[in-house]
Amino acid sequence: TTLREPAMCSMPLMSADCFSNDIHKLDTTNMMWTLISAKGTPARWRDFHSATIIGTKMYVFGGRADRFGPLHSNNEIYCNRIKVFDTETNSWLDSPPTPVLPEGRRSHSAFSYNGELYVFGGYNARLNRHFHDLWKFNPVSLSWRKIEPKGKGPCPRRRQCCCRVGDKIILFGGTSPSPEEGMGDEFDLMDHSDLYILDFSPSLKTLCKLAVIQYSLDQSCLPHDIRWELSAMTTNSTISRPIVSSQ
């Protein structure tokens, strides 16, 4: 399911400057799109948000909107409340306010694991800030909790790729402000080519290796394969640039 451009902004000259809050459904058996006639109070018009399916419900978080409506007026707002869409009834559901909320953001990553929603990173132009925090949303209790993973995590960034593989989240790339420009500039950005792994179910071996790294323990007595794995865990994981031929 994806959010598409609303009918009220379908004029050719205005469509590029218009936010959206309607829903289209793709039937993967015949690859046909259908505009959903949704019931309830829809999510606010926005872009750069996330929409994550857990069971039969879609959880919309974040994104950039305009304070005055669906058209860009340079009065950006960043919603930090979850909006839920029920795909069985085609209805937007009302969610009660929660006492703890992450900052509103756009261009973040969102994924589900064990029936819960996770949000990482992103950017808020009003705060002039990039994020590298990790939050978990429980759709049963409708509550947020900030997660503090062990180990060294990614720097503040947006536009990164997050893919779940089993019990691990593979995070790659993204963009951050150039070091010379501080941590919030909108345009002076640098692209990352690094990779991080978030392990939700680490083995005892993995936890021991993390302890060796964290406390700088002596590795000389460890087997060669363990030393190699420790080296791989602490070596720069960026992709090298293509070699330019001199021909």
TrEMBL record:
Signal sequence residues: none
Pfam families assigned to the protein according to its UniProt record, in alphabetical order: Kelch_KLHDC2_KLHL20_DRC7
Record's keyword terms, sorted: Kelch repeat
Any GO CC annotation of this UniProt entry: cytoplasm
InterPro entries: Kelch-typ_b-propeller (IPR015915), Kelch_1 (IPR006652), KLHDC3-like (IPR052637)
Protein name: Kelch domain containing 3
GO molecular function, one term: chromatin binding
Organism expressing this protein natively: Bubo bubo (Eurasian eagle-owl)
Keyword Magnesium carried by entry: no
